[in-house]
Amino acid sequence: MAGPSIVWFRDDLRLADNPALRAAIDRGEPVIALYVLDEEGPGVRPIGGAARWWLHHSLASLGERLEERGATLVLRRGPAERVVREMVTDAAAGAVFWNRRYGGPEREIDAGLKAALRDDGVEVASFAGSLLFEPWTVKTGSGTHFSVFTPFWRACRSLPSPRPPLPEPRRIEGVGRGPASDALDDWGLLPRHPDWAAGLRETWEPGEPEARRRLRAFLSDDLASYDRARDEPAAGATSLLSPRLRWGEVSPHTVWYETVEAGHGGRFLSELGWREFAWHTLYHFPELATKNLRPEFDAFPWPRLKPSRLAAWQQGRTGVALVDAGMKELWRTGYMHNRVRMVTASFLVKNLLIDWRHGEEWFWDTLVDADGANNPFNWQWVAGSGADAAPYFRIFNPELQAKKFDPDGHYVREWAPEHLSDEPPEPIVELGETRAAALDAYEQVKRAARS
Ligand code: FAD
Which of 222, 338, 382 to mutate to test ligand 1, by most ligand atoms within 8 A of the CB atom? Predict the structure, then answer.
């Protein structure tokens, strides 16, 4: 069927290495770029506040870049299944292309849409753009999926290498007067009353050009010291690519190839491997954000939630220096260093005895890189209920962690200087006692596992 090609952008807000966009250009018909804000689709989890901020700016950047090359970004809001079909009709489109998503509800929407459009005689194709290895291609010897990272990553590495990234298109033929678009500002993605995003504006510049610059700066300045310094929150030694990968402003293929070209980076590449592992786990276990991956953890006797304790954690008022520093960094910048994410998460689950799902939700709302796989996967990893998880009984001591990874107190001084004053805040719980209580509670999980 002739007629324009629609590229449905989702978690791939980029022009370079975008297989769906490439297919649309190669089809030879004019291209319509579409983004759908779907907060109503069945089972779709609405994104959090910090993610909405990022999305706004990333879409603005993508729109400009498409415009410069001759095409227009059309914004529509509503359940994707309905909106995409309406667009096909409005634009008399002959084809729809997209890069795959891997969450359960998203896959169902995409499969339903694919079938419906094909019934209507529209060409539809989906591509691999967001993961290095498709989840159904990585299997154990007996054909099941992996639950332990090391053999998972070994299996990935024994597959053919990820495909090289596709070049960025210089020109994209648009449709002239295209279908009507919503105005981005009308979507209300930015916080207004109150405007809490000042720290995000100071910290980040969303969009593909900055994502590529960040990758290059990391590879030239920091990759060589990554293995040594990656665990120190004040060292600034990590890539800060997580929100860029989350929104697909840079593809994992581009990161992979440029890292390999830079010469070293096995450890850094294996962090991309953890990202793959989280997404593959979500693919096989779509309820990752709500259900314990290891069912014996359903027996964990969470005490009744004390909202004041949860609030103290959220606001960085626990009286524990590294925890408070991390939570304040998160609130201000929408980001937290990985080591500190582990410490703050462990403190919530194992010292405050608060169910990991409450922490996951807070991170979901406040992280600019929050995504449907990495966030719940890592929370379950810390809680002990997840894939290849840290054993529950290994409880981080936040004071020792601070001594080891922030020995000069640079990180705490930056985010929670009150802890270095003459009268530092008192911890809201006693670390030793709460640790013992957590281990007692864990006995029930062990009993459930045995029975
Ligand atoms: P780098 O060290 O430069 O790593 C490069 C890339 O590898 C990252 O951008 C990321 O895509 C990937 N990566 C690194 N560590 C992990 C990991 N442990 N699991 C999966 N992928 C990883 N990461 C997210 O992208 N989104 C989340 O919502 C998220 N939530 C988390 C929640 C908790 C409780 C914890 C402990 C970790 C979470 N992480 C999450 C993983 C990790 O903290 C971030 O990916 C990392 O801090 C991002 O910083 P960076 O890009 O500088 O990382």
Answer: 338
Name the pTM for this structure: 0.98
From the alpha carbon of 370, which atom of ligand 1 is closest? 28
Find the angle CA(301)-CA(103)-CA(363) to the nearest 5 degrees: 50
Per-residue pLDDT tens for 387-406? 888 888 889 999 999 999 99
pLDDT at 440: 94
Report the DSSP beta bridge partners of residue 360.
none
Known catalytic residues are 271, 274, 302, 338, 356, 379
340 lines ligand 1 (CB under 6 A): no
Tell me the CA distances in angstroms from 267 to 43, 229, 264, 272, 289, one per residue in order. 36, 12, 9, 9, 27
Q: Could you give all domains of the chain from N- to C-terminal order, each with its CATH number?
A: 5-130 (3.40.50.620), 131-161+208-284 (1.25.40.80), 295-450 (1.10.579.10)
Percent of the chain with pLDDT over 70: 100
Q: Which of 292, 286, 273 is nearest to 138 (CA)?
A: 273
Q: Please report, for the chain, how many H helices and E strands are present, in that order.
A: 19, 5
* Å from CA of 17 to ligand 1 middle: 22
